[in-house]
Fold this protein.
Amino acid sequence: MDSTQLAIEERVAEEHRHHSKPLFFYVWAALLVMTAIEVYLTYQNLPPVKMLTILLGLSFIKAALIIGYFMHLKYEVSVMRWATICSVVGCLIIMTIFFFPDAFRILHIGVK
Amino acid sequence: MAESALHDIPSVYEPSLFGTYSKKIGMWLFLLSDSLTFGALLYAYSYGRISTANWPTPFHSASIVNATVMTAFLLTSSLTMVLAVRASVERNAKAQTLWLLATMACGIGFIVLHGREWSNLIAEGLKLPMFPAVPGHEAASEFVNVSKTVPQFAATFFGLTGMHMLHVTLGVIYLGVVALRRKFIPILLVLWLVAWLGTPVYSPFHYGAHVLLIAAIVISIILWLKPKVYDSSDVEVAGLYWHFVDLVWMFIFPLVYLMSAKIL
């Protein structure tokens, strides 16, 4: 590994040292609580679309917590943050454009 | 702060555009591509569900409780992984190894619970056409009907959760190599023998266990070609992979299990 890589690695390690340990426990507890809420909601007989919306909302919050704090993306440089998030979201939008119009058409027509 | 610190680094090379080392960027690129694999599988599952009348909701509370415990295992493993990364940057080798082993233990717990659940569902009749019949076990008519009337359910369920289980297994192996290096190879071979010989021939895990043998061969070659002591950057990169596996489960758990729970 060249000197640039080693220096960058040391800087990243230095950033890690500044993160407080309790923060990770708070994030972990929040993830567990949200999982418990999801399981609780499962047995509340909510309409499927409402249920799906809430579950997906909680899943995205959980994903953001994992990516931001556990995967450390929150502390990366802005170019890194934008490049990763935009590329994934862009690809998922493309998938949505191709997949779902047909699925919604089937849903609208009804499956015999 | 991060950007300004980056420009202070003296080098003949230009500083990295992404402000971090190349191994980490490589892992992020891999994870981005892998997220599309899981994204496609989840979209296929959602498409199948929307376009299929009478999509089954066969998961009883026992399955939901089992999947919730599995989720807790994965979330806890992410916490122990973060603590392993922290120990590595503090150059505390003993704590790093212990936290990595704790992460592996949670991962193995997840795999064992998932494998047990698969075995129960297969025994009750939820299966793919390629799965052999379980001898001496009466299949529950509910799951047999599901497999016959809506074969997409079993296909998407086993496809999606199987792909994730494979990722968790490879993650445990990856962490084992980072934590124990060459000492992990005999352990992996023992695990392979236990998984292979300890599962009945009709179980999909009987032949699936050979993934461990293939991994042991690949690891042996890698460690023979490039023996090294893994440093904090390697632990951090391994952690990224592990957290990603956890992240994917945060979508599989509600979409596949909770949305298919049997409400009595």
In short: DSSP finds ten helices and no strands in chain B. The two ends of chain B are 55 Å apart (CA to CA). Residues 33 and 186 of chain B are 32 Å apart (CA to CA). The mean pLDDT of chain B is 88.
